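Standup notes, protein team

Yesterday: finished cleaning the Anhinga rufa set.
Today: PABP4 protein structure.
Blockers: none.

Input for PABP4 protein:
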Amino acid sequence: MTDPTGKSKGFGFVSFEKHEDANKAVEEMNGKDINGKMVFVGRAQKKVERQAELKRKFEQLKQERLSRYQ
């Protein structure tokens, strides 16, 4: 993706015909270093899915922190 001046915004989207190819891309490319920058590769999520996952992760971290002090 680029801005109106043609400068990269630093992100993009890719669609795959095969589900297996998409999974392979996530497994092999997530966390890789490309030109000195670590990339995040993940499947697209609907807003509700993303919010539920973030809430679950937040609750998990909260429980871990609470258990340290008990």
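Follow-up from PR in the comments: Residues 19-68 form one domain.
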